[in-house]
């Protein structure tokens, strides 16, 4: 019997983790591997173009709501969140669990607080899942010591991108030393047993502790929004109906400034590949393109979100504008080589455990 038909409350799981750690990948894995459970998703993008929402929407149809631009932790109050939860929790939606995918710069504590403060009788806080990028973990911690605090709050920590590290045992040990009582599970491409998430409901004691800490006592970091991770970051959204020139884009990407930590979106290479759009992801120095057939009826355009600290948004926008293909109707033969260097055959090719 589903949770809804038995009249139980729907758990709301908060899925958090730094920029590019693999939250959307994990959410998509859950959507495809949830067995009979029906998942509702609330997706929060930091940039004005909702790339994450696009990446999960296909799988979910009307079970996704997007909270749009800005960090959920500051952009909406709990009553606004309630409106979205209400929509997903209505019995006719038949949803068993709701996952809130936070932006990569959101403060998980604020999100947990919002869910706990929800007055919706049909839902119950279902725990905090933190996704960690094993390959970037040391650098991210060095730049953002707050990450340790986030991990200490988690009920489940997924140490993702294990395929990219050679010292998995050390990273796992380090994460274990930073959590409180959370389960720590290694993963590649977010492939975790969904039972971890739907059963990761925190115990009563922990909810009590969180509600006391989060609802009645504010520490400095919570009161001061300038201490939030996203305070140091800017985002730039770029959309263009002009096809992108692959050589120019690769030149731009290969010389991107160090502060530009995250790029995501879809690229239209026009005559260079009329069948596919190219999902693009940069996380730190990691760069990948993923060709995928244009969805039927999709508007052919390049849409990118760039997120970084100390970036010159106007200069980056001008550089992206200059990547436009000047109307050349034909592709030259070698033009895509630079892009194809960053295409991997399949995820499995890099993940022997798959
Ligand atoms: N090698 C490898 N790449 C991964 C893994 N998981 C995710 N990726 C890649 O990492 C990039 C970012 O993944 P996302 O799932 O979009 O990350 P995210 O946390 O949702 O990103 P933001 O919403 O921007 O914070 C994509 O290129 C993914 O394909 C993994 O386990 N191994």
TrEMBL record:
Gene Ontology cellular-component terms listed: cytoplasm
Catalyzed reactions per annotation: GTP + H2O = GDP + phosphate + H(+)
SUPFAM superfamilies xrefs: Hypothetical protein YjiA, C-terminal domain (SSF90002), P-loop containing nucleoside triphosphate hydrolases (SSF52540)
Keywords: Chaperone, Hydrolase, Nucleotide-binding
A Pfam entry, by short name: cobW
One Gene Ontology molecular-function label: nucleotide binding
Residue ranges the record marks as coiled coil: none
CobW C-terminal domain segment(s): 233-324
Family recorded in the similarity comment: Belongs to the SIMIBI class G3E GTPase family. ZNG1 subfamily.
PANTHER family, sorted: COBW DOMAIN-CONTAINING PROTEIN (PTHR13748:SF62), COBW-RELATED (PTHR13748)
Protein name: G3E family GTPase
Organism annotation: Streptomyces capillispiralis
Top-level taxonomy: Bacteria, Bacillati, Actinomycetota, Actinomycetes, Kitasatosporales
């Amino acid at each position: 019997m589903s949770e809804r038909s038995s009249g139980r409350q729907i758990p709301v799981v908060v899925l958090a983790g730094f920029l590019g750690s693999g939250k959307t990948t994990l959410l998509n894995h859950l959507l495809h591997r949830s067995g009979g459970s029906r998942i509702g998703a609330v997706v929060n993008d930091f940039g004005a173009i909702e790339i994450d929402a696009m990446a999960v929407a296909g799988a979910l149809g009307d079970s996704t709501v997007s909270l749009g631009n800005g960090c959920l932790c500051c952009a909406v109050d709990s009553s606004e969140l309630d409106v979205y939860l209400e929509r997903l929790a209505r019995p006719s939606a038949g949803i068993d669990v709701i996952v809130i995918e936070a932006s990569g710069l959101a403060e998980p504590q604020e999100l947990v607080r919002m869910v706990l403060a929800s007055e919706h009788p049909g839902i119950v806080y279902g725990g905090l899942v933190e996704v960690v990028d094993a390959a970037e973990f040391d650098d991210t911690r060095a730049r953002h010591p707050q990450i340790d605090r986030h991990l200490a709050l988690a009920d489940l920590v997924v140490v993702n991108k294990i395929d990219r590290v050679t010292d998995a045992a050390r990273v796992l040990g380090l994460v274990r030393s930073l959590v409180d009582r959370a389960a720590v599970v290694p993963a590649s491409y977010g492939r975790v047993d969904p039972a971890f998430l739907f059963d990761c409901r925190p115990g009563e004691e922990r909810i009590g502790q969180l509600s006391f800490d989060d609802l009645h006592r504010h520490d400095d970091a919570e009161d001061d929004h300038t201490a939030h991770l996203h305070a140091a970051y800017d985002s730039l959204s770029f959309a263009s109906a002009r096809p992108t020139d692959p050589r120019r884009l690769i030149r731009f990407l290969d010389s991107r400034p160090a502060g530009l930590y995250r790029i995501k979106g879809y690229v239209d290479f026009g005559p260079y590949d009329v069948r596919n759009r190219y999902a693009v992801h940069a996380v730190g120095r990691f760069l990948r393109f993923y060709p995928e057939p244009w969805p039927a009826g999709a508007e052919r355009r390049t849409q990118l979100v760039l997120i970084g600290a100390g970036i010159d948004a106007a200069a980056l926008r001008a550089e992206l504008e200059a990547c436009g293909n000047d109307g050349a109707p034909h592709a030259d033969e070698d033009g895509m080589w630079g892009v194809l260097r960053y295409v991997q055959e399949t995820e499995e090719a890099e993940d022997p455990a798959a």
